[in-house]
Amino acid sequence: MDRKIMVFVFSLMVFLVGCVQAQEKPLEKVGFLLPHPIDDQGWNAKGYQGMLKLQSSLDVDVLIKEDIRSQQLVREAIDEFSEEEVGLIFGHSHLYADIFMDIKDEYPDIHFISFNGEVEGDNVTSLHFDGYAMGFFAGMLASEVSDSHSVGVIAAFPFQPEVQGFEDGAKFHLPSVTVKVDFVESWVDEEEALKIFRDMNRNNVDIFYPAGDGYHLTIIEEVKKEGLHAIGYVGDQLDLGESTVLTSTVQEVEKLYEYAATRYQKGELESGNIYFDFQDDVITMGKYGQGVSASTQEWLEGHISTYIETGDLPNNLN
């Protein structure tokens, strides 16, 4: 072989090996920011459990900080993470998206991940649960099971896609159903959520969807006292009462953590916004309670299977 060709081939091989090595990113420490305490039995608790699984499966150290909501506290936490040479930081809320966008350029060696917020840039990613479909199926079930033909959503914020999904699903299945929707304007304000519950209860609502991870357990307990029904949120809440909880809209945040961290290690973690749904096996319906007959379960699961296979919700099928 000609010497020049040999040099070229050798140089090309070195370049390609260098590229492969550059794609791999060793991950020894992960930073984790929570907006609220880890013992809320909801979104924050699921996030914490996800981090424990990540720590075990990938053999990484996880540095956790709770009750981090202001930009100043986020900056202080990130400074500490940076000193510890953390390469990947998870912000377990949409509220971190804007803050990460503001400061990401100051930490080019850190990749920032938030949930359900809009981001753009080279070292920032937002993982989105596309909640419309799960809300749609919850609404279908609620209108099917309701005796009063009046169902209610106690939501945190108007931007939640599952809220509109619930209303659309309920009305698609039963056009005559009344869907009450009100907003707490907080994930954790139990007092305001209870006010909304009592108002809906007075207006004959018999099935409730408390779509807020900080007050959903309190609402389900009140629903139980009144002998009514609820659909759980974020986690599988059947253990709160099989005669009360019809099912739950479950978001498997633990799987997204492993997905993101593994892709980061391989140098394949996308920047920008990434969306996940039933088809990605990270959104599911939980176990069914006593108030949902076997035939109703089969009916709903059939619609979900069709959606997974085709991407079409029942209202989009010909």
UniProtKB/TrEMBL annotation:
Gene3D superfamilies: 3.40.50.2300. GO terms for cellular component: plasma membrane. InterPro entries: BMP_lipoprotein, Peripla_BP_I, PnrA-like. Signal peptide: none annotated. This is BMP family ABC transporter substrate-binding protein. Keywords: Cell membrane, Lipoprotein, Membrane, Signal. The lineage of its organism: Bacteria, Bacillati, Bacillota, Bacilli, Bacillales. Belongs to the BMP lipoprotein family. It is found in: Cell membrane. The keyword Nucleus does not apply. The keyword Oxidoreductase does not apply. Residues 28-316 form the ABC transporter substrate-binding protein PnrA-like domain. Its main location: membrane. It is a lipid-anchor. It comes from the Bacteria.
